[in-house]
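Input for the complex:
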Amino acid sequence: MWKSLVAAVALLAVSGSTHAASAVNKDAETRTLIVTEGGSKSDLALAAGETVEFCPNGCFVTLPNGDLEALTGSETVEISGGVARIK
Amino acid sequence: MAVSIKDRQFQIAFAARVAIKIMIFRLHRLILILALVFSALHPFDATAQALGQGAAGLITDQQKVIQGLTAKTDDLEKKIQQDGEDDASLVDIRLQLEGLSRAALTGALAFRSRLNDINNRIETLGPPPAAGQPQEPDIVTGERQALASEKAEINAVVASAQNLSIRISGLIDRIGSMRSELFRNLLTKRYVLSDALSPQVFSDARDEFDNFYKAVSSWLSFAFKFKFQAVLAATFVALGLALVLLVGGRRLFGRVFEADPTNEDPSYLSRLSVAFWSTLLPTMAVGVFLASTVFFFNYYNVLRGDIGLFLNALAAVIGVVFCVNRLTNAALEPRLPNWRLIPVETGPARWLARLTTAMAVVIGVNYFLSVVNDKMGSPLSLIIARSFGATIIVGVILILMAMLRPFKAHDGSWRPWPAWLRYTSLALGLFTIVAALLGYIGLALFVSQQVVVTGTALVTAYIGFLSARAIGEEGAFTNTSVGRWLSANSSYEDTALDQLGLVVSVAINVMIVLVFLPLILLMWGFQPGDIEAWAYKLATGINIGSVTISVTGILSGIVVFIIGYFLTRWFQGWLDGSVMARGKVDTGVRNSIRLAVGYAGVALAALVGISAAGIDLSSLALVAGALSLGIGFGLQNVVSNFVSGLILLAERPFKVGDWIVAGDVSGTVKKISVRATEIETFQRQSVILPNSNLINNAVGNWTHRNKLGRIDIKVGVAYGSDVKQVHAVLLDIARSHPLVLKNPEPFVLFSNFGPAALEFDIRVFLADVMNGNIAQNDIRFAVLEKFSGEHIEIPSTPRAVVDVHKPKAWPTDDDKIEADFAEQEQAKMEAAAEARRAAKTGRKVRKPDPD
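Predicted:
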């Protein structure tokens, strides 16, 4: 019984993955976000229609239009028509 | 120091606030969505204008915030360089830096809505006209430019926050490498022993002791002259507190506290509890005495500068030595062999207790002297000499312990410790001595301290685990004092108490892990800040790959589910007991509604709990999709029964208490649950009938709308009787019975010219068909009585008389008898041989199954 309980809790824990922010590219071409996380900048290239989870503990993101935004790690960045929106 | 404590408190408060915020956020996610929907209905421009007025203020505000954070970071960077040698302060700085990083992020977040508004507005304005197109009004150009410049300002502020966070990350990395460097230095630094062990050390030590003596004696004379009353008061108050604790503890736990020397064979559990309490209570009393002494001395301003530090160190040393001594004495009980936890002999037990205490004293004294040296600014050679002496002594003690032969074999010879324990102890002792001799004093000291302190913690934790296991054993909890008290004062059964014991044992295990894991980590050189940072990470979520594990999320989900569950149960009870009972609702309907409400409530609680735990159901959907085919096949029956159960609740072809006939089963419905329905036959056999049977097959219900029912009683009269008279008599009997309804009228049917009799059927209707047997009995008795009075015969079917042809007996024949007897003997012997074979193979001779 304990084993199954532990297994259930582990399953719940593993599936609880809503903390990270996610980025969705709804355009037909590749879009790039510049993510600053933990002291380093990196390019996050999103292929057409791709969804990527990133930035679990807060980060800064440079959007395609040059805007710099802070993310806490629970948002969704949606890119459509070259414009990114944070939801 | 005060500042750093304050900041630490701020950190903790911040972490707690964030955790609470996350929980609240999830709880109200639905409400938030609703609120968003409503707010979206408002005209957008109004909010944009309202926000636009405060925008300039927002930018300057946030600029100031970021500047403040940058200034704090500058201070901390300077502090890193200053306190580069102090591990604890480095950890503290790291915690503060993490807080600053979060604050920078939060500061940058403040612009999100404004930036959103600006982008929307720019989009509404459209792009500036191209070269050939007509000019746009100046007001539009102006607004576009104003928006663009505001956006540029905002971006500049956010960029400064970003730079700050990058810088802070760099600093945190630097602190990490500095700390590992520090630790490496501590362990690998080699001192030159020839300086430390020269005669010079003795004169240094004498100077040092004189200084210390002067400091203490001057403080003592000061205390006696000016603060004598305060010292007395503080000491007495502290003593009083300790006494209250000790005496109160003895009164409360007196029975389990003292080992009873007359007890020949105490149970393992009672030995454990005696060991535990006789360690805990005196240690707590001494700890309270020491802590309150220091506290009251501080309170009355008796302490002065370094004396306070000395007193703190002394108190810690006395506390640890006392605790180690109590623990070894409790576990080994040199005086009472029956109460010993570890089955060593008496002589070695005494030696073990002495050696352990000596080791604790050496380590303690060394620690106290290190505080003194630190405060007095002693020469390095003295410090090295002190540490050298302490580590060599600890090493020797460890080797002595390993050489001890604590067990006695059956033939009286002494047996050593188990090999792994002996060699570990030997290796540790040799390692310490060799390291000290080679000059690696830091390493040797670290190892010897860990041996004493971690060893004590591990032994205590191990005893705790053992007691948890002993409590968890079957029937053990009932025999404890708490178990006896519970069984005397509550209505718990033995099995319930046993399960409670299991729960207690699991709780003890969890508690031990929660208490001792951080304790051991602390001793292994991790700073409280480290553990705090881990706890914070654990609470907000750890990342493994792209997966985040969050303890607060899971806990909040579980808590929400439990609250939802109990709310449902309460609502169920209230609806059933207060509303529906008062409303005179039919029991069956009540039952159905109660069940439906219960299932809906639990399902709702589970859903809310899962969403509060932050579990994305969409990630489960993939798994569910893959499994659904398999589940569909495997759980076909269960699902079909479940759905049937829901239909039964909605349609209500029968309710609890109904008399139904389903196939071969006839009885009263006891309980309708979601998978199956419990029916009690009139023989009091419970039949669990899957719900799908009740939905798919015909179910007869005697008491569906009402309990009205007809019973038929067959009566036969002899040929030649007056049938008219018989009819009248039977009708009269039926009508005169009190249970028989007047409407529908009783009816007597002349049903058949039977082979032996003229057959009549009495058909009567009863208001409650459950009384059928009583009515049938009464009517049959009455029929017999009336018929014998009226001389009406009831014929019994005559049996056919059969002439049985008996076979002729065998002629008396000795040969035949002898042959039979031999055959019987043979059969008997074979049977005996068969029985022996069966017994040999261990198979039991099976009884035939009952029909």
